[in-house]
Design brief:
Length: 232
């Protein structure tokens, strides 16, 4: 079971370092390779103790004239080899198109990164029924080489992100079972995962891990979530 924390635009460099120290102190007995943190770009650092570090975003070049972006060179300074691609906030707020996302995927694939690739539908699509739901979700794989080995899928229904209301166990099973059958990849669920619901979510066979936003922001709370997920 993998536990992935997405800080989004929260925490500073200093508070991320404190967080890593505190979380590591809670992780005795947890196997290495199961906890991954995506801090903001200004707080990127090397992996430490049981905590691996990934990038929430980067541009698909080594370096160059891409104002405001970071690329392979900046990630390399910290030995970072994991990246989040396709998050709904980048698709919706930052306007990343499927074509742009696919270019990012190709570049980081060519550089051997583990890609945590996010997909998820808005409520308006979910309300149209299963056919529309899967048509939408599968369209988010356009241009993506799903045969790439080092690739994990995160299913994050947009209506469940940051709302405090997670998808139901049945909702998660429906989508994860279909994704497992189609792609046979590691599958994370994301969308209001918290201490109160992790035990039920972790018991779902086709859930291999969770991607957690709000409930990952405090080290003590995330440590509790990890412990409950591991004993579920
Ligand atoms: C996310 O945006 O990746 C996420 C899962 O957020 P939250 O846990 O806050 O719903």
């Amino acid at each position: 079971m993998r536990f992935v924390a997405n800080f989004k635009m929260n925490h500073t460099r200093a508070s991320t370092q404190e967080y890593i120290q505190e979380l590591n102190a809670h992780l005795e007995g947890v196997d290495s390779g199961n906890v991954l943190l995506f801090p903001p770009a200004t707080a990127l650092c090397e992996a430490s103790g049981k905590i691996d570090i990934g990038a929430q975003n980067a541009y698909f070049e080594i370096n160059g004239a891409f104002t405001g972006e970071i690329g392979l060179e900046q990630l390399g300074e910290f030995g970072i080899k994991k990246i989040l691609i396709g998050h709904s906030e980048r698709r919706e707020i930052l306007g990343e198109s499927q074509e742009f996302i696919a270019k990012k995927f190709e570049f980081f694939k060519a550089n051997g990164f583990e890609i945590i690739y996010c997909i998820g539908e808005p409520l308006s699509v979910r309300e149209q029924g299963q056919e529309a739901l899967f048509e939408y979700l599968f369209s988010e794989f356009d241009g993506i080489d799903t045969s790439y080995d080092n690739f994990t899928i995160a299913y994050e229904p947009i209506w469940a992100i940051g709302t405090g209301v997670s998808a139901t166990i049945e909702d998660i099973e429906l989508v994860h079972n279909r994704l497992k059958a189609q792609f046979n990849k590691e599958l994370l669920y994301g969308g209001s995962v918290k201490v109160d619901n992790i035990a039920d979510i972790a018991k779902i066979d086709s859930v291999d891990g969770v991607l957690v936003g709000s409930a990952s922001l405090k080290a003590g709370g995330f440590a509790e979530l990890i412990k409950k997920g591991l004993i579920a």
